[in-house]
């Protein structure tokens, strides 16, 4: 998306109600799977924004094993994220 004249960065559209409900549902699945609220939220953002753009998992959740039902539904990206595969430099994480 291009920036309007005179603006330095693109305008982000607000999150829709549907996107918010989807994010909340994904986060809740990760909480039920055993992740803390913070890490579950980061995993949900990872699915929404890309795992390279989120914080690494906390020490409380790093290396945890997810149930097969969660992996089947959401893929293996969160498993790889919990294993430390996706690490973004701190200046890239928003």
Fold and architecture overview:
By secondary structure, the protein is mainly alpha-helical. It has one domain (17-92). It is 45% helix and 0% strand. It has four helices and no strands.
Q: How many β-strand runs?
A: 0
From the structure provided, what is the oligomeric state, counting identical versus distinct chains?
single chain
What is the number of domains? 1
**Which sheet architecture does the biggest sheet show?**
none
> Residue share in helices?
40-55%
Strand content: under 5%
Give average pLDDT, whole number. Answer: 83
From the spread of the alpha carbons, the general shape counts as globular
Given helix and strand content, the structural type is mainly alpha
Radius of gyration: 15 Å
Unreliable segments of 5+ consecutive residues:
none
Count of individual helical segments: 4
Order of helices and strands: HHHH
Q: What is the terminal-to-terminal distance?
A: 19 Å
SSE topology:
Blueprint: H1 17-32, H2 37-49, H3 68-74, H4 77-82
Please outline what is shown here.
The chain is mostly helical and 94 residues long. Helix content is 45%, strand content 0%.
Key structural traits:
0% strand, 94 residues, mainly alpha
